């Protein structure tokens, strides 16, 4: 699902994944043999008037654990890898159509079971080795290898029976059952260079995680841990070269510091906190130097409750926790109204989102009644809730650096204290935070998902994904939900699929494994020296920016 990529938004750590399944999804297929190859006139291309040169220096609010696109599990890796790696097809930023990249065209059989991609022949990896169908097959096999840390991706490809490579420039995927997102998933499969791996090598610890080799317009120049990741333009790139010579990601985890560095000229682009947007960037000097851009992308923030923990195994408790979060107050006071409270796992502006489901209200009295019905009560003379002699006490994990998770956690801690629940807050660096989540070593946490334009909830909500490293890290399990998710994958009629999704949202709303928070705006500041800075339906596209000679700094 992307649950995968918030470009330029540092307000909350976003858990996301580097395959198409977590990014931009959606294509309505019709019966018959479908083929695609030519570019449409409304698709995004490099501007003809671009001037080459200059660098783009941008903020990265957490350091990726790896740049291996198959095992990476966060948006920060995706932000870097988007410039290094390419896929067979992509969703165009401007037209939202699926367009060829490494493939020149594709065909879909009438029964939606066979997907054939014909690859371009002039493409090389950045080390000069030719790109062929062997790389696609190798990458698919690594995703499906249970020893590889690719659980979030694996579920999207589980119904593929076999992959054939009749020649070096043809790849054919065979499905055992139809899947409505098969084209996006096959075309968006992350591809790594097979020639860099040897038989028996541990893929998870491969050097490619620190030294990526891709087919894209940029390649890695250097990575200084805790400091910066530097990309340089690939001068041998097979496609149209971008204008900007280097893209530098400065690793700055504190949003206050990143804004200061931006104002001092050390950054060209940064994501803003709501208070920074509303109060700290309104002066004339700032607006003369920077563009302020705000836009919605498919995403939501949430609090996740570990349903495997005895303390959160009862849905009455989870619902009570939701009713103790003053979401409207947080939206108004902390987010300055720059968003909307959500109730389910689909993008709020998508027709798949059920607007008939209303948020549970902030209601401490009703929450206490629910807790008491679940067996939590005050012992004589105590104001601490207990059950079977054990106090209601738990740990809440938040990623360090960004302010919003800490603000939410602080408010929640105060609300819970008033009702007799003790919550401790643990702030962790991003890589450590993710490891805790993946190891099921948490009680509650706050995160965000980046969604696709059309979504398959399997990755996050199916019970088979409630495993180590899986995206269903809260351990949500429901038989009816599993059945709906599986049936929806085979349904090509969007209206019929939508009915299944509405019922799924009713189940999730009733169970409350998440306290759904907000869909909020991306808030970005960009130096005015860059030209062609446009907000597209998928956000910003720095790959197409350029700088006039007189304005170039580097």
Give a concise summary.
This protein is an alpha+beta fold. It has helices at residues 75-84, 133-144, 151-154, 182-187, 255-263, 274-280, 284-289, 315-322, 327-333, 364-373, 403-419, 430-438, 458-461, 479-489, 494-511; strands spanning 34-36, 55-60, 89-91, 98-100, 103-108, 114-119, 160-167, 170-175, 218-224, 228-233, 246-251, 269-271, 290-295, 299-305, 339-341, 386-387, 390-391, 393-399, 422-428, 444-450, 514-516, 518-520, 522-527. The protein has a domain at 299-520: Dipeptide-binding Protein, domain 3 (Roll), CATH 3.10.105.
Descriptive report:
The protein has 554 residues and is of the alpha+beta class. It has a domain at 299-520: Roll (Dipeptide-binding Protein, domain 3), CATH 3.10.105.10. Helices cover 25% and strands 21% of the residues. The chain is built from 15 helices and 23 strands. It has helices at residues 75-84, 133-144, 151-154, 182-187, 255-263, 274-280, 284-289, 315-322, 327-333, 364-373, 403-419, 430-438, 458-461, 479-489, 494-511; strands at 34-36, 55-60, 89-91, 98-100, 103-108, 114-119, 160-167, 170-175, 218-224, 228-233, 246-251, 269-271, 290-295, 299-305, 339-341, 386-387, 390-391, 393-399, 422-428, 444-450, 514-516, 518-520, 522-527. It has a five-stranded antiparallel beta sheet with strand order 1-5-6-8-7. A five-stranded mixed beta sheet has the order 19-18-20-14-21. Strand 7 (160-167) and strand 8 (170-175) form a beta hairpin. Helix 8 (315-322) packs antiparallel against helix 10 (364-373). The longest helix is centred in the last third of the chain and has 18 residues, at 494-511. The radius of gyration is 24 Å and the shape is globular. The chain starts with 33 loop residues before the first strand and ends in a 27-residue tail after the last strand. The model is unreliable at 1-40 (pLDDT under 50).
